[in-house]
Amino acid sequence: MFRSRTSALAPALALALAALSVQGQDTKKEIEKYQKMIADSSPVELYELQGEALWKKKQGPKGASLEACDLGRGPGVVKGAYARLPRYFPDTDRVMDLEARLLHCMTSLQGRTREEATKRVFGDDDNPSEMEYLSAYVAGESRGVAVSPGTRHPKEKASYELGRTLFFYRAGAWDFSCASCHGEEGKRIRMQELPVLSTPAGARAVVATWPAYRVSNSQFKTMQWRINDCYRQMRMPEPNFVSDATIAVNMFLVATGKGEPYRGPGTKR
Amino acid sequence: MHTTLTITLGLAAAAATPLTCAEPSDQQTLGVLQRDFHARGQATMDRVVQDGLQRICTLSGDQPPAEVAKALEADQMRTIVFPSGSLMGEWKRGEAIAQSGRGSMWNDQTGAAAGGSCYNCHQLSPQEQSHGTLAPSLLGFGNKRGNGPQVQQYVYGKIYNAKAYNLCSQMPRLGHAGTLTEQQIKDLVALLLDPASPVNK
Fold first, then answer.
1. Complex ipTM value
2. Binding-site residues on chain A for chain B (CB distance < 8 A)
3. Distance from CA of B93 to the nearest CA of A (A)
């Protein structure tokens, strides 16, 4: 069912994309048009459905599903869990974001090796990643819940402070920090608008809509991917998947945008 | 070198005034980066270590004290290798370099020709409407500023090492970083200054 609906969408998508690439100026209008067009059969919903199926699928040496996974609200509770991440988890003694927690459940509940479970953390044109489907499902179960990451545990505070430090840390071949591109109102790289991410006004709309479906490449993307791809543009080395550094940067963004009702997974350029 | 060190330490001490107790020290931050990143392609791990300029700009929130900025801009000026002879290349090649956003990323092929990402941040020729706004428009640059030897030298230097003129500029040091070659920078000088370039039409 998933596949057939995707392919039914494909012509509309191709059309929208062709329109997008013609004239950068009209990008915004085109995205709005596209968003209307997909309102009835949102691809986001398809990712959510596929993610739910994966969540319930028995996998790994232990032949277990992820249904007993504790995302912070108790084993098996998915409703409202995503909006409360990142947070401190006593069982791992770490601050974790969604992808970190999913990986933890894959290894602990399903008995999969870390190596196997992280083989494809980011998808591509032909093949989305398991992480992307699962993120869509879990995030979708937080719609309407106020974004409220953990802020009380000392490790949560340390993660926030580290994230803030990394956000302003200028390094790499081109001397960029995150703030180089996300530090001033109303700026663009080519036609892509750059939200200011270090102020509540800018961060709220962003953290309320990730993970997100990207129209430009017809892929569903996670926040771990977003951070990874911005470090690529910064000419930095690659951050390790769900490392403390990436979780801290995410924590800084989410804590800066906290209070906003979650309304994702979103649709982006 | 010596001035850099003293200034760095002074600023570090000022920045150490605790905002909250959880703020990581410089050593801790570097430790995290060295543990949590890995080299990929040409993006090697030395890139997580800040040089003096990156450190001062980070510590001062890109607002270094004027005398510090002046001293360090002079240091940056000394990194620029000005070729002898004309600095004007070919604007047509310059336009292609300005268009390309490739270069120095982990997925760029090592040794392959890079671009300058100029259009990512600047407006240049009126024909290209898909340009960024992170930086001032350079439309009509040569018309406004002339194209004599001094202006050529300034533009060459600015592209080679933007920080020699503005210490905490958001513009990358494209020659200093090894992204662009001498010939490529000359071609960009022509793009900005040649009267026949679309920038000046």
1. 0.93
2. 23-25, 154, 157-158, 160-162, 165-166, 168-177, 180-181, 184, 186-191, 194, 231-233, 235-240, 243-246, 248
3. 20
